[in-house]
Amino acid sequence: MRHTHVQQPPPSPVASVASTKHMAPPRHVVLKKLPPVTEPTAEVMPVAFRQSEPPRPSASANESNSPISPPQPLANAANPDRNGELPRPMVPGESSLEPPEVISRSSAVDLQDVIVSVNQSYPLLVSALLERQVAGGKQVSAWGEFDLNIKAFGIAMPEGFYQNYRNAISVEQPVFRNGGYLYGGYKIGDGNFQPWFKERETDEGGEFSVGAGVPLLKGRAIDKRRAAIYQADLARRAVEPAVRSQMLEFVRVASQVYWSWVAAGQSLEAQRDLLRIAEARIQQLQDRVDAGDLQRIVRINNEQLIASRETKVIEAERKLQEAAIKLSLFFRNERGEPIILDNSRLPQAFPDYTTVGPRQVEADIEYAISASPDLAELNLIARQVQVDLQNAENMLLPKLDAQLLASKDVGAPTS
Predict the structure, then answer these.
(1) Could you read off the pLDDT of 309-364 as tens digits, one per residue?
(2) For residue 105, what pLDDT is reported?
């Protein structure tokens, strides 16, 4: 028996997985439902600015309210039970330039293993989680408008007829609830002042002053500063459903790549079976040729068929290698490096499937709607639009403020 060998081309470092026509996954596959990430659902309600003040951002509050845990060191990525934890991002220059690791073990890799790897070490997911820090920084920046403001100045006019010297320092604290402010200051003015600037002159010990102000119409319910805080708070909260949406998308793509890898393995087995059948058949034909039952040309034609089968086996092996390379983007080791799985890690077959009834389909649809992060994100976007609307309506109101100021000069009167 003669075999025709065809040299196998080297695998491409980056290749896409082509769909196979020999074996395809069943239409309905029963997979274990992953526990949903807890996300509070809320209806679109008007934002009550006059009632409550959004809490100032803090690290502990952000972590406790977030449905997805922030990135953790890569050393924790080995624990598959901690599904919410993700590794820290690799800094520039820290990632290894070595080729992906090739793992060859006897245990098969299932879809759950790939999903756990995506949740723990997929770089794009880690990058999405860093958006929390960006949103938190913008929220802290917005709250800076309500920090304690300290102002001071000194002016000297040593030349001319009106020679005078003025120094002042003031402290102002904006009030979030009603848009007002509290004021306290000290100033001292000495010298010869213009008659129309006599308020700048103080006694020898200077002047202490305290005061308060509050808007009555424009700026009372909401103003530019508070609108920025509301927007930053809603933007930070909108990061969570956005991260969940990206996580679901990454898991969906990883699942498709995984089943393409399994299908490529099944296709390779089918091509090998066809090659074995062709080899067994040509041996039978050789026996008939030796017995004079068939002409020799029949055996030559079947040898060409074997060469064709061997070529298809090589093509199937190539597609399986491409599928394994693509799967390595989602399946990584404890250090976050891609792993190219060996053929021994392939499942023996596709999982059993069953027909899904109409009730189960309806229940799954209701569950998908209730757990959809897109609806939660749309709800927060609608509330951001409400903030812009209320701020625009506030700009149409006339400006009317109430102020209370008390001052006291100390020291000897000026001459």
Answers:
(1) 899 999 999 999 999 999 999 998 878 889 999 888 898 888 887 888 889 899 99
(2) 53
Using alpha carbons, select from 75, 109, 101 the residue that is nearest to residue 338. 101
| Residues 38, 374 contacting (CB under 8 angstroms) | no
Task: Give the C-alpha separation, 45 to 54, whole Å.
Answer: 16
Domain limits of the chain?
Answer: 65-87+98-142+246-372
Q: Are 185 and 173 in contact (CB under 8 A)?
A: no
Mean pLDDT of 241-250: 89
pLDDT over 70 at 74, yes or no: no
Query: What is the full DSSP assignment across 398-410?
Result: PP-EEEEEEEEE-
Q: d(Cα 191, Cα 270) in Å, to the nearest integer?
A: 103
Q: In 3-state terms, what secondary structure has residue 370? A: helix
Using a CB cutoff of 8 Å and minimum separation of 24, what contacts does 89-98 make?
A: 89/123, 89/126, 89/127, 89/130, 90/123, 90/336, 96/335, 96/337, 98/337
pLDDT of res. 260: 95
Burial state string for 240-250 with b = 16 or more CB within 10 A and e = fewer than 16: bbbbbbbbbeb
Sheet with 401-409, strands from edge to edge, namely: 149-157, 164-174, 181-191, 207-215, 401-409
Terminal-residue alpha carbon distance, the chain = 126
